[in-house]
Write a structure and sequence with these properties.
This protein is about 80% helix and about 0% strand. The protein is an all-alpha fold and about 130 residues long. The chain is elongated. About 5% of the residues are buried.
């Protein structure tokens, strides 16, 4: 065999390699298209509307105000003032404010938001 014959054989082998890589490139391109399609299909859903989050924030603020009302003022260790500790504000008003804040939060959680329920149902029907 001459030197030229070996080169021809090497060229044939290398050309087969190029054919394989082009098939791999096509497969890679198809895989990238599939991934791109999957990314388009996936949507992030928000559980509540903006209005619900605002109402939840207001409810939490009312709870914090109730806790501040319950904490009260300053007592020196030397003076024990029963009227300040067991006052109307600490025993009655503060718990009512806290419970009303919790009721506001519960209302906001159960309040139906129009964009999530109706939009999801419309999307499934189309």
């Amino acid at each position: 065999m001459a030197k030229g014959d070996n080169k021809k054989k090497k060229n044939k082998k290398s050309s087969n390699r190029f054919v394989d890589t082009s098939k791999q490139n096509e497969e890679v391109a198809v895989a990238k298209k599939r991934r791109a399609q999957k990314k388009v299909i996936v949507k992030k859903e928000i559980f509540y509307a903006k209005e619900n989050y605002i109402i939840i924030g207001v409810g939490l603020l009312v709870v914090v105000i109730g806790l501040a009302l319950m904490s009260g003022g300053y007592n020196s260790p030397d003076n024990w003032d029963v009227n300040e500790i067991y006052s109307f504000r600490r025993l009655t008003l503060a718990p009512i404010v806290i419970l009303s804040g919790l009721a506001i939060v519960i209302f906001a959680i159960f309040k139906s938001s129009d964009n999530t329920t109706s939009d999801n149902m419309k999307g499934e029907e189309s």
